Amino acid sequence: MKRVDVAQLNAICLEQPFDCVRISRMLDKAEASNGWTIFFTHDVSETPSRYGCTPSQLAYVIEDVVHKYTMKR
Q1: Rounded to whole angstroms, how far apart are CA atoms 55 and 58?
Q2: Does the pLDDT at position 73 exceed 90?
Q3: Domain residue spans in the chain?
Q4: Residue 38 contacts residue 10 (beta carbons within 8 Å)
Q5: How many CB atoms sit inside 10 A of residue 72's CB?
Q6: How far apart are CA 1 and CA 5, in angstroms?
Q7: Residues 63, 51: Cα–Cα separation, whole Å
Q8: Which candidate in 22, 24, 40, 42 could, as Cys together with 51 as Cys, close a disulfide (CB 3.0–4.6 Å)?
Q9: CA nearest 43: which of 29, 33, 57?
Q10: Strand-pair partners of 12
């Protein structure tokens, strides 16, 4: 059985400045390798910290994931 060190998993911070292209590329890369994409953020607010995102930015990520997943089916 192959083991995975969860401390070594790649993750993408949803932070400022928000980069839609980078996020979409990471999702495409994960799909191509049958892998995972882990997102995290420190806060979700209309005025987020540098390490946070807005509600609309988080919605963009969720919609992109759902769109890519449903396109596969």
Answers
A1: 5
A2: no
A3: 10-72
A4: yes
A5: 7
A6: 13
A7: 21
A8: 42
A9: 57
A10: 39
Q: Are 12 and 23 in contact (CB under 8 A)?
A: yes
Predicted TM-score of the model (pTM)? 0.82
Instruction: Flag whether pLDDT at 72 surpasses 80.
Output: no
Per-residue pLDDT tens digits for 38-66: 999 999 999 999 999 999 999 999 999 99
CB 35 within 8 A of CB 68: no
CB under 8 Å to 14, separation ≥6 — which residues? 23, 39, 40, 41, 52, 53, 57, 58, 61
Contact 49, 42 (CB under 8 A): yes
Q: Which tens digit of pLDDT belongs to each residue from 4-25?
A: 777 777 789 999 999 999 999 9
Indicate the helix (H) or strand (E) that contains 14.
none
